[in-house]
Every structure is written in C-alpha cells, then in structure tokens.
Amino acid sequence: MIQTAQEAKVAEDTSAYSGEVFQVVSFHIGSEEFAVDILEVQEIIRMVEITPVPKAPYYVEGVVNLRGKVIPIIDMRLRFGLSEAERTKETRIVVVDVNRVILGLVVDSVSEVLRIPSNLIESPPNGKQGASEFHKGVGRVDGRLLVLLDLTRLVGTAAG
C-alpha cells in the first residue's frame, strides 16, 4: 500500500498516541470545514441530476437514483442557514448511512480522510443555531479546526 507523505505524517503523529483515534472524512461547507465519522460514509459521488420532491423541507433538494436505490439529498448549505452557492466541479454528494437511513449530503468540496486522536477533540460549543445543534465536537488537526457533525441528530431532526 502506497502512502502519501501527509498520510505517513498523520500515521506517525497518531502512532505514539495510545488513546482512541477517530478516522473522519473532512469537507467544506462555505468557509467552514466539517467532518463525519468515516464509518458513516458509504461513498462520495460527483453531482448528479436531483429530482425535486413536492412539499419536502426547504433543505431537502430532492432525490437521486443511486444504483437502483432512491435516496434523499440534503443541501447542507441550506440546512445550516447559509445562502445557496453556485455548484462547481468540486461540489460532491457524501452518501451516508445513519441508523440504516441512507441519504446524500451536498457539500462544497471534500477535503481528505484524517485520523484525529481523541485528546485533540473538544466538547461541542454551546448554541442552537445553524450547524451548532449538530456538533459532536471540534477537532484540532495541523492548526485547523474541524467541526465534527453528529449525523444521528442531523437525520433525526431532518426526519422529524
């Protein structure tokens, strides 16, 4: 298996740590960087045509047919109260499986897979506006702050 220099550095940095290490997929929504547990991510796909669904919540853009399975698509910019943005070649759909609910999350771009030692994850900030109600914590990696999302709350709130 070939490792990039960054992957080798991350492996080296986390190998000395004896506690729990979380592996996450990081992505951008607006100017913020977010991350979700890699075990919840099924795949990452390029944008495809999304079929609108009548009377869906404002942040549900519609549905897509992914290999014979119809999955709802959530526009994360709208879900977090941000303005819509033009889709680019970097825009992706992160397909996640949360408690057996498969859905797609439209994000501005996907960054990388990271390993974060648990001692570098802080409790979520207080607040109930926008994305803050879905925070699991904040991870510090290479001088960056990653907002770790709690997809169970995101899906639970989206479903209810």
From TrEMBL:
<feature type="domain" description="CheW-like">
    <location>
        <begin position="21"/>
        <end position="160"/>
    </location>
</feature>
<protein>
    <submittedName>
        <fullName>Chemotaxis protein CheW</fullName>
    </submittedName>
</protein>
<dbReference type="InterPro" id="IPR002545">
    <property type="entry name" value="CheW-lke_dom"/>
</dbReference>
<dbReference type="InterPro" id="IPR039315">
    <property type="entry name" value="CheW"/>
</dbReference>
<dbReference type="Pfam" id="PF01584">
    <property type="entry name" value="CheW"/>
</dbReference>
<dbReference type="InterPro" id="IPR036061">
    <property type="entry name" value="CheW-like_dom_sf"/>
</dbReference>
